[in-house]
From TrEMBL:
Assigned keywords, A-Z: Ligase
The organism of origin for this protein: Corynebacterium callunae DSM 20147
GO cellular component: cytosol
GO molecular function, one term: dethiobiotin synthase activity
Protein name: Dithiobiotin synthetase
Enzyme Commission (EC) number: 6.3.3.3
Keyword Ligase: yes
Higher taxonomy: Bacteria, Bacillati, Actinomycetota, Actinomycetes, Mycobacteriales
One Pfam family recorded for the sequence: AAA_26
Amino acid sequence: MISKIPLDIFTIEKLTGLKGKEWIRYRDPLAPNLAALQECAEPLDPAALISWLKDQDAPQRLVVIGGAGGLLVRLGAEFTIADLARELDAPLLIVTSTGLGSLNAAELTVEAARHRQLAVIGLLGGSIDNAPDLATRLNLKEFEKISQVPFLGAVPKGAGALSSADFGALVHNLGFPALDKAVAELVDQTL
């Protein structure tokens, strides 16, 4: 049975018009190591994944790897998103919730990345309500100070359901200058 949960790759393709590539997809939306166990499938092979990702890289191409639930989520038995980032020497853009408990979660993630000597280019808030509660409003002001990495902005709730044109207009109107700058710097580094 295929999961009815919308897949991130399809949402990204719909919103941006860019073609994404999937290396593997499991039926259930679980951490990859648990999804493989649930399906009685072989655990993910880190070397094969790294090789495939390196094959996607090319001059003037920015490869974006979507996380699977967090920096320390297991992709295989002992292989995490953090391990993947280290193997690829990939900088991290950490997407965080914005409500109660989010400052702690964001700071712990940044701390875990730094402990592993991974570069963090910034934090991006995901799915913020149109009328955010008090905790969210205060958190938006504190993320940068608490984490000591740039807070690059927050994406409004429901943005994934927009048409490509409406999403483009939203991004243009929100004007994520800090995110634009961080991505431009990454692109410059890859050229």
